[in-house]
Amino acid sequence: MRKLVSYQELKTQSKAEGIKEGEVSLVLRQLKCCIGTISAEDESRITGLSVEQLEALGEALLDFSSGDDLRNWLAAQKLLLYLSLLLSRRAKIANLVTAKVTSISIPAIPNSNSKNLQSVTKKQKQKNQKVWVKSQPGIVSAQS
Questions:
Q1: Are 31 and 38 in contact, with CB atoms under 8 Å apart?
Q2: pTM of the model
Q3: Could you tell me which of 48, 61, 40, 39 has the C-alpha nearest to residue 20?
Q4: What gap in Å lies between CA 2 and CA 107, rounded to an integer?
Q5: How many domains in the chain?
Q6: Among 15, 35, 47, 57, which residue is least crowded by beta carbons within 10 Å?
Q7: Is residue 33 part of a domain?
Q8: Can you give the pLDDT of all 144 residues of the chain as single tens digits?
Q9: Where in the sequence is the domain holding 42, given as residue range(s)?
Q10: Is there a domain that residue 144 lies in?
């Protein structure tokens, strides 16, 4: 089913596209004055920037003296994008893990004297150690 777009949405979208095109045009003209010719690859990368990134580039280019400065700035922006994506995914994963952990019900430990509980824990530790030793290749148990 095709989504119907209102006049206001089209107007807003067109305005945003016009602003971006103007920013791209201005930044490209400034770069050409500052560093000379710009490769087609760099121009394509600049065209793909967001309006906020274009504004930041417009400020940063005042310190550029060569095409290398531009390429370094563009590479830094790419790294920042990857970093922000990783951080947002990390936050989503942390939220999922937290939700999962909090949904786990832990049974209550039955009332028993402390000495009995300690002996059970000690026996379980010894059993776990024996199982671990057996699973390790090349380790010979002293009891064997």
A1: yes
A2: 0.56
A3: 48
A4: 53
A5: 1
A6: 15
A7: yes
A8: 566 778 888 888 888 788 899 999 999 999 999 999 999 999 999 999 999 999 999 999 999 999 999 999 999 999 988 888 888 888 888 888 887 777 776 665 555 555 555 565 677 777 777 776 677 666 655 554
A9: 7-101
A10: no
